[in-house]
Amino acid sequence: MSKAEKPHLNLVVIGHVDHGKSTTVGHLLYLCGAIDERTIKQYEEEAKKLGKETFKFAWVLDKLK
Fold first, then answer.
1. For residue 1, what pLDDT is reported?
2. What is the rounded distance in angstroms from the CA atom of residue 52 to the CA atom of residue 31?
3. CB–CB of 50/19 below 8 Å?
4. CA distance 65 to 57
5. Residue 43's CB: how many other CB atoms inside 10 A?
6. 55: how many CB neighbours lie within 10 A of its CB?
7. Tens digit of pLDDT for each residue in 6-34?
8. Which comes out higher in pLDDT, residue 65 or 26?
9. Half-sphere exposure of 25 (CA within 13 A, CB side)
10. Is 51 left (phi over 0), alpha (psi -120 to 50) or beta?
11. Cα–Cα distance measured from residue 30 to residue 13, given in angstroms and rounded to the nearest whole number
12. CA dist., res. 9 & res. 4, Å (int)
């Protein structure tokens, strides 16, 4: 494998309802650079208005196509 190639990774996240699966994956995508700072700030402001500040990373997955 050349340095330019990256290995493909299949990842499964399982858990009970409302135990942070979407938040964890959204945060991971943010930390890996897949989501920019401006987008996270926008989600954070929207979540704050609704009183759900911890949902900013979960919304990353909700808004992906």
1. 53
2. 21
3. no
4. 15
5. 21
6. 19
7. 888 899 999 999 899 999 999 999 999 99
8. 26
9. 15
10. left
11. 16
12. 16
CA distances from 16 to 6, 22, 27 (A): 31, 11, 18
Asked whether 56 and 43 are in contact (CB, 8 A), the reply is yes
Arithmetic mean of pLDDT, 37-64: 90
Q: Which two tokens stand for residue 6?
A: 């990256």
Distance between CA 28 and CA 50 in Å, rounded? Answer: 23
Q: Which two tokens stand for residue 58?
A: 């979960």
**What does each C-alpha distance from 37 to 11, 30, 42, 51 come to in angstroms?**
24, 8, 9, 21
Residue in this structure with the two tokens 């926008």, named with its chain if needed: 42
CA distance 24 to 58: 8
